[in-house]
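Lab manual, section 2.4: Encoding a predicted structure.

Procedure: take the sequence of the chain (176 residues), apply the prediction step described in section 2.3, and record the output as structure tokens. A sample record is shown.
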Amino acid sequence: MIRRFLGFLNFCLVAALSFYYLNLCGLSVKEFFAVSPQVFILAFCFILLFAGENFMRAFVIPALLYYGLFGLFFYPWTGVDIANQAVHILLLINAVYFLLALVIGFKIISLLLGLAAGIIACAGLRGYQTGLLRQDMPLAKKYLPQDLRPSEKKKTPLKKQMRSMMSVDERWKKKN
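Recorded output:
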């Protein structure tokens, strides 16, 4: 019962938010998938989310953790992004549920093999997305929000940043 309910909630939230952001960005479905191949991972995970085989459950866990856990820190907790956070929390709950179900059921071999396959699949598709965005930078700049775009200016080395912070700290101490 709880599995079906979680699956239904996930489907409704992801479908609603996907169409909302497509309309907000003025993107067609084809452009959206071209910019974000990781959406294919998410769609695949929802297809396999409640498969009866333990291997498939374990295969889904890395993607659920990736989207659920990192999404909590990536999006702000204000305004319309609260709905995003609800999706990320549900993804995380599903991942924890599957992990506990497999560990408590002593399905360790299925868990390890499924996790390994899931990590390889997620890493491959994530690498593909990174390569695509590096190759077609105008496309990435067109659709990524301003704060997520790569900066145009040259990055300052870490040592130089540390020195400048120390000098600010020293100036503040002298004033006080």
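Check your result against the sample. The chain has a mean pLDDT of 67.
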